[in-house]
Write a structure and sequence with these properties.
The structure is a single chain. By secondary structure, the protein is of the alpha/beta class. The chain contains seven helices and five strands; from the N terminus they run ααβαβαβαββαα.
């Protein structure tokens, strides 16, 4: 046999052996990866099962249920005291109403005053939302004793009570911009600032989202100074 032919044959055999070995190594690597993924999947399933039986998670869930139940019971108790609605009371009932709840908002009004009707509209909306505070109204003409006792001279007059004590008041619309068309949010914000209402979490979150969106718009405007703003 020709020596060159023998060398070529041996070289081909050697190359073939190398390729076969490489193929075997590749196959082993693929199998190892498959086993690793399968093992990882099993571990994840086990972790999820363990998580479902986690006593700390069960305690958190139980605490949350208990808190919701307590809140519901509190709301029902407050509603029995006249919270959750905007009600008219008489002079004879007034003292019991303002001393029967920790926080009370009372609107001294006159039936024929247009601005008193505006206050009625806003307080009726807020009463449904802020159950922690009692909302009532008292006809000033039919309550001369408390009008004199509390020094009510201008209507509408909204007096804020804490534990039966008058702590603050809103007279007319001077704290609301002096205009008739102020939104309920303006009155709500003022009452929250005065501490007679509690800011709701969803309102705070919505405000944060709005501020975030405004910041994004400001950034976009600064990046595109020539863009039209509709």
């Amino acid at each position: 046999m020709d020596p060159d032919s023998v060398k070529s044959t041996l070289s081909n055999l050697a190359f073939g052996n190398v390729m076969a070995a490489a193929a075997r190594d590749y196959q082993k690597e693929v199998l190892a990866q498959g086993k690793s993924q399968a093992s990882s999947s099993v571990n994840q399933e086990v972790d999820l099962d363990e998580l479902m039986d986690d006593p700390e998670l069960e305690k958190l869930h139980a605490d949350r249920i208990a808190a919701l139940k307590k809140e519901a019971e509190k709301r029902e108790a407050l509603k029995k005291q006249g919270h959750g609605e905007y009600r008219e009371v008489t002079e004879g009932d007034f003292l019991g109403e303002v001393t029967g709840s920790e926080k009370v908002i009372c609107h001294f009004y006159h039936r024929e005053f247009y601005r008193c009707k505006i206050v009625d509209k806003h307080l009726k909306t807020l009463a449904l939302k802020h159950v922690d505070t009692k909302f009532i109204k008292l006809d000033a003409e039919n309550a001369p004793f408390f009008v004199a006792k509390l020094g009510v001279k201008t209507l509408p007059c909204v007096i804020l009570f804490r534990k039966g004590i008058a702590v603050d008041r809103l007279v007319g619309f001077q704290d609301l911009g002096g205009k008739d068309d102020f939104p309920t949010k303006t009155l709500e914000a003022l009452l929250i600032k005065k501490g007679i209402l509690i800011e709701k979490k969803e309102d705070a979150d919505a405000e944060d989202d709005g501020n975030h969106e405004n910041r994004r718009r400001t950034v976009r405007s600064s990046l595109n100074p020539d863009s039209d703003s509709d």
